[in-house]
Amino acid sequence: MKRKGKPTFFIVLVLIIIFAVVTAFGVKTRWGDNTTTYIKGLQDIRWGIDIRGGVDVTFAPPEDVTDVTEEQMNAAEAVIKQRLLAQNITDSEVYTDQNKHRIIVRFPWPADEEDFDAQAAIETLGETAELTFREGKETDSEGAPSGTTAENIILTGSDVKEAKAVYGSTSGSSSQQQYQVSLELTDEGAEKFSDATGKLYASNGTISIWMDDTMISAPTVNAQITDGKAVITGNFTAESASELADKINGGALPFKLETQSYNSISPTLGLQARDMMAIAGIIAFAVIALFMIIMYRLPGAVASIALIGQVTLSLAAISGFFAPFPSFTLTLPGIAGIILGVGMGVDANVL
User: Fold this and answer.
1) Would you say the pTM of this structure is higher than 0.85?
2) Cα separation of 170 and 164, whole Å?
3) Which of 30-44, 213-227, 291-305 has the lowest mean pLDDT?
């Protein structure tokens, strides 16, 4: 009795095609103004300065800050680098001019953002981003902390071990779901927070949560918190909650940085050259695949499909594929590496 071969070839072909389409376009849903990304596409890849261009900005301490030390400048440089990494910007340059007390930063434009607000991004990099938990919620005419609130600081960002954006129920409500920032405190921070919440619970007091001089929320203390965990709630979106968590994890600058100069960097090649390179690569790949199929028939077809899977897997890794995973910056040397990988794949299959 003749056995029927399983249609393994066609199953693999269909799976690779589906994988390639999903990698190219991603999977997203839109509800009103909110877009939820489940799988990232090629539009989520961040292109390097040589392809897309970027920003060149010089920061300096405020004029009223005197006696700036080398340690403070190094600390500020480290915080800026951490903030760039939190935004998945790996193709960046940050260096410090200790003599002039200047920090020079160069970073590429974000992926898939035609109306990118560079000035807002620069202000975010240069802001102090000092997290504080304070007693009460007294403010002055400009909204800054005053009175008891200004004097009694319960926690600072240094008391936070880790911050992360989460989606879950709010305190006291199991049905209301929203984005929030969950904090895990250090041992010292947990002890201070336990003492403060115990005191304020007895007096039905409040704790206000601040980022610099902006109050995020001011919840009433309804229990003593002893587990070393805290939650920041507010009208957060997924993006704003992640941004706040990144600021907390990145740490505070020793002082707010002022922008001394700002310039846009023109790309070495540009997006048009990138698109032409992509078209040329697709044509070259098609010619190679056709040649392999003509020369080797079925083995050539199998090798061509394997190469498609190889390129797709490389692009999926660069984009991060799944939404929680970070994207990587793709530069001209990176594109050359992908092309080299295809060439090596062809050699391996031919040999």
Assistant:
1) no
2) 15
3) 30-44
